[in-house]
Each structure stands twice: as structure tokens, then as C-alpha cells.
Amino acid sequence: MTIQSIHAEDLSECMKLDRINKADIENILVSIFQSSYDGIFVADKEGVGIMVNAAYSRITGVTSEELLGKNMRTVVKEGIVSESVTVKVLEQRAPVTIIQSVRGKELLVTGNPVFGQDGQIVYVVTNV
After folding, report:
1. Residue 2 domain-assigned (yes or no)
2. What would the pLDDT profile of 67-86 be if each residue is shown by its tens digit?
């Protein structure tokens, strides 16, 4: 059993007990994501940006418009970041930590794969 499935089961159990509903879960997760002091970026299995929190933009100086809907290979080619931890995670299928240069700042960046039930990567979550 994966950590991801344990959490899903815990949430399902809370819903069964009428302690929380699906809309509440979504609101809680979005609130946690946006309130994190650490920068968080999420890409899909193709390396396309789908979520970024305000802390990521505060830390890096990169706006959500520069990342969302773009493939990280393109973001590297545009010179927004020096290299992409997302691309490395997709290639290695494992967590990766790098020092990334973003607009003259050197940042410690860690990418983690999120696997689906079929064993394929569905998301890459990056922390700055």
C-alpha cells in the first residue's frame, strides 16, 4: 500500500463519518497548498505546469503565467530556469534534488514523482 492510497483511504473514512465532504477536502487542500511558506510547483506527466503557489513566485520571481500550461522543457529553453527538476524526475522516475538557477538566484529544488495505481507517473511535485 502506498502513502498516497493511505491518505485517500483516510479521507474516504472521514467522508463516511460525515466529518468532511468532497468540497471541503478540495478547499482544505487548496488552502494548504496556497498557505505554504515553501514554494510548490506541480506538473503533469508530460511536464506541463498545472499548479503553482504564491510562495513559488515570491521565492523565484517567476509568475504563474510563465509556468502554467507550459512544458518545462520550453521553460528551460526560454531561460526562465537553468534546468528542470521536473524533467529529471520524469526521466529517472525517482525523487531528484538540484541546485537551480532562476533569474540569478541559486535555489535548492526537489522534485518528487506521484505515481498512479498503474505505476506510471501522474504528477511531479516540486518544492523550492
Report:
1. no
2. 999 999 999 999 999 999 99
